[in-house]
Amino acid sequence: MHLLRVHRTFPKLKSLIRSQSTQTAALNQDEYTETPEYPPILDLSLQARKLRERQAVHQKIQKINTVEEKQIGLNMPRYYGFKCVMFTDDRVPYNAMPMVQCYTRTHFKPTEKLPDIYNETEQLADQAVKEIKSQIEDAIALELEAFDYKYMTDIPEEAQRENAIAKRIVKQINRIVSNNLADKVSHVLSAQVDYDPRHEAFWFVGGTDVPRNVYQWRKKYPFLKDRIDEPVDRPVQYKGSPIIAVRSHLPLKPILPYSEAENPEFKVPKFTYQPEMVGYKIEHRHGTNIPGFWPGDHDEFGLLSVQGRGYMLVRNKSFGAQDELEALHCQAMKSSFGWLCAQANYQGFTTYNDLTYPLATQTVITNGQEWSFYAYQLNTITMHNEQMDENPKHNICFGTKPQQLYETVENGKVKGLNENVLKTLVQFYLNTPEEREHDMKPYLGKEEQVVADIEDDKKRCWLEDRYKHIMANRPRHLLPPETFLWEKIYKIQHNTRFFEKKRQPWEYGINPYKRRLDEHLPPYIPKVVRPYPRSKKKFETTYYPDV
Questions:
Q1: How distant, in Å, are the alpha carbons of 113, 356, 376, 377, 427 from that of 117?
Q2: How much is the pLDDT for 264?
Q3: What are phi and psi for residue 315, nearest 5 degrees?
Q4: DSSP for 302-325?
Q5: How high does pLDDT run on average in the chain?
Q6: Distance separating alpha carbons of residues 88 and 280, to the nearest angstrom
Q7: Which of these, 117, 162, 169, 242, lies nearest to 405 by C-alpha position?
Q8: Could you give phi then psi for residue 372, rounded to 5 degrees?
């Protein structure tokens, strides 16, 4: 007993015995219950274990407090980024409608007029059109005939000319409409207008066919023989830059009740083919969600975005008129979903943690003369493998055919101005945002919602720097190992050089693209700048989220 007392582990042993006795007493008190209680019976198969691991990661991302840390958490699995399917506004392949609808989970509804919620502003829009009609005509004539602009030469001349004309006309019309409505509706006066903003969104889509390299890898392992054809998640990255984007502090009213999101009449085609077959490109990059501003901005909800359509001039004419119309619808769905998805991420939702309320926006596609109008409601952004078939919610998009704002411009005068088109545009501006009665950010912290709210200077600066570096998508200072073509032929496809020294990571069974974001050595702290008097801490502290 004397030896036990003097031993250096005695205090730890004593506390351990005390805690065990306390637990035993608690167990004795609750030893018997009215109904038998059994531990949960877990499925121990490989698929079930992997599913529980993924769900645990989703829960960890949901519990992160700030927007920036959630975005870092989404990128944690890949140091060099994901192989993303790229969605852009200036490229729509042939027959892309089914894939775009599936990847954005959008039910498209063609319509000749706007939904019923726009009827409230019809009289005010008629009055505004009468007041600004002559100004719009003068602005169009001035931009088309009074100036001679020089164009860049890095894209086809017809497309860049049309984009430049559309940009000038849209900016003038936005100025005239905003000035006229500023004293009639308060949200137009306080709204913020972005010119050529950066709109990006990132999400996962499940249920797609297995890529060839994944299929070949699965064939090597006997325990994966039952999962060779199992669908995979494909990361999708949207990148766009509208002509203008108008946003406000409050969100728009939903077009339809949120309960309509599960309407069985909403149909979305199932697209399982690989996106490369359609014509979409694959790019290695980090996932970014940017709605045109950084987290913490006061005006964080979109009202209206206006897109150009110059790419339509360089599409193959043999595609036909119907495919050209579908291309405009695809552009509207990609643009609307991408902008709203990025806004939803700034509210604390992610591709793993779905929306608890709907968001809405308005999109216009024009070349200055032809105008198409779209109203979009976002109900869900969760489309990964576990939710692709289980999620009953769909997004909804109302869209019109292109309509001419004017017929021609002759001798400095606009001929045949279509007041109905101008009225529809004015009604988009008059659509009033409203404050919601529910919690807008249920998955963000109460005191810390953005990194700027963190009081610890080191942690705040480190997270801000890391977040901006990921969003910039700059290449790493050490690029990933390259597999040369001769290695692919003589070492991978045909093992004919087995006596050579192993030099590449894949020769040791290592996949460098599966390296995690936090798998790197932190910056070294020189002895001179370490805390006084002595410190054994050689490396700086990192603040990666626990994902």
A1: 11, 22, 13, 13, 10
A2: 87
A3: -75, 150
A4: EEEEEE--GGGGGS-GGG-HHHHH
A5: 89
A6: 9
A7: 169
A8: -120, 140
Q: Which residue has the tokens 């008129």?
A: 321
Cα–Cα distance, 419 to 133 (Å, whole number):
8
On whether the CB atoms of residues 247 and 299 are closer than 8 A, the answer is: yes
Structural tokens at position 205: 């889509």
Beta strands 359-366 and 370-378 are: antiparallel
Tokens representing residue 278 in the block? 């359609």
Range list of H helices, 318-362: 321-346
Tokens read off for 105: 């989970």
- pLDDT digit string, tens, across residues 455-495: 999 999 999 999 999 999 998 888 888 889 999 899 988 88
Quick: pLDDT tens for 116-160. 889 888 999 999 999 999 999 999 998 887 666 665 556 668 888
Find how far residue 200's CA is from the centre of its chain.
Answer: 6
The candidate with the shortest Cα–Cα distance to 348, out of 470, 442, 453, is 442
Q: Please, how many CA atoms are within 13 Å of residue 362, restricted to the half-sphere of its CB?
A: 27
Reference 191, options 364, 357, 431; nearest CA is 431
pTM over 0.85: yes
Q: Are strands 199-208 and 290-291 parallel, antiparallel or unpaired?
A: antiparallel
Distances, alpha carbon 525 to alpha carbons 125, 190, 521, 539, in Å: 64, 48, 12, 5
CB-based burial, 262-282: b 16+ in 10 Å, e otherwise: eeeebebeebeebbeebebeb
Beta strand 290-291 with 395-399 is: unpaired
Cα three-residue angle 530-536-538, rounded to 5 degrees: 65
Instruction: Classify burial at 197, counting beta carbons within 10 Å of its beta carbon; exposed 0-12, middle 13-18, buried 19 or more.
Output: buried
Are 425 and 364 contacting, i.e. CB atoms less than 8 angstroms apart? yes
Nearest-10 crossing angle of helices 321-346, 97-104: 20
Q: How many helices (H) and strands (E) does the chain have?
A: 14, 15
Secondary structure of 143-199 in HEC code, one letter for each residue: HHHHCCCCCCCCCCHHHHHHHHHHHHHHHHHHHHHHHHHCCCCHHHHHCEEEECCCE
Alpha carbon distances (Å) from 74 to 69, 202, 246, 434: 9, 9, 28, 31
